[in-house]
Automatic annotation (TrEMBL):
Basic residues bias (residue ranges): 170-182, 245-254
This protein's name: CBF1-interacting co-repressor CIR N-terminal domain-containing protein
Highest taxon in the source lineage: Eukaryota
Lineage: Eukaryota, Fungi, Fungi incertae sedis, Mucoromycota, Mucoromycotina
Coiled-coil parts of chain: none
Pfam families per the UniProt record, alphabetical: Cir_N
Transmembrane annotation, as ranges: none
Domain CBF1-interacting co-repressor CIR N-terminal, first and last residues per copy: 8-44
UniProt xrefs under InterPro entries: CIR_N_dom, LENG1-like
Encoding gene (name): ABSGL_07284.1 scaffold 8717
Basic and acidic residues bias locations: 120-139, 150-169, 192-210, 218-228
Length: 254
């Protein structure tokens, strides 16, 4: 490991370090000279352009008649900027007009908020003439007086008034009864599951008895009312009926 620093190709060799320093200094000097030449060339070009512009301005000033305008170039640039701004404004207005064109078109019917004395809760059907006529009718009905009868003590008029009252009372009673009946029918509850099962069981028992009567020829049992039977309230009514039927068959064949 101690031999490496003495090698000629070693990076940290003294000769190599010195060579790198010289190369860096030479490159720096060359770069400075290059930048200096570029700066000189740029300055010469600018000076040439300024001389040309000064010569053209002098020729224009000699040719024109009138006051000398020292800021002619600045004024020209300002005028150019104003024209550009005017063009940009015109283009912007045109685009805005295309976007908001529907707002400029006049509607056939003005909206409700632009109408005088009209709100969004106002109904068109309830206009002022309609309301006026309705108020007049209500006022007439309210101030309408019953007809004056000339015969206050006439017994026929008294009897007629009593009969009219009775008829009105009967009509109210009948209408109330119909409404009550309708409400009862509408509020009646549907049959429960237990009731449906009981009805189904009754139908099945009746069908079973009818089938048995057809098979065994027992017509008396078919037309007999179940409530008149002996064991109508018995729990095992079907089994008892079957036992009676088998007993009758044995007696018939014996």
């Amino acid at each position: 490991m101690n031999i490496l620093p003495h090698k000629s190709w070693h990076v940290y060799n003294k000769k190599n370090i010195e060579k790198v320093r010289k190369d860096e200094a030479k490159a720096k000097t060359e770069q400075e000279a290059k930048d200096k030449r570029a700066l000189v060339a740029d300055s010469e070009v600018r000076l040439k352009l300024l001389r040309q512009r000064a010569s053209t301005n002098q020729v224009d000033q000699e040719g024109q008649v009138g006051p000398v305008r020292l800021f002619a170039e600045a004024e020209k640039e300002a005028m150019g900027n104003e024209e550009v701004k005017a063009d940009e404004k015109t283009e912007k207005d045109r685009m805005n007009k295309q976007i908001t064109m529907y707002l400029e078109a006049k509607d056939e019917e003005a909206p409700w908020y632009s109408k005088k004395g009209h709100t969004k809760y106002t109904d068109d059907h309830l206009s002022k003439p309609y309301l006026k006529s309705k108020h007049d009718k209500d006022r007439q009905k309210r101030h309408k007086r019953p007809p004056i009868t000339l015969h206050h003590d006439d017994p026929l008029e008294v009897i007629k008034s009593h009969l009219d009252k009775d008829e009105k009372k009967k009509d109210r009673h009948h209408s109330h009864h119909r409404k009550h009946k309708k409400s009862d029918t509408s509020t009646s509850k549907p049959p429960s599951i237990e009731e449906l099962r009981a009805l189904r069981k009754q139908r099945e028992d009746a069908e079973r008895l009818r089938t048995r009567s057809v098979i065994y020829g027992d017509t008396h049992h078919q037309h007999q009312d179940p409530r008149q039977q002996r064991y109508n309230s018995q729990y095992n009514r079907t089994e008892t009926d079957q036992a009676h039927q088998s007993k009758k068959q044995r007696q018939h064949y014996s």
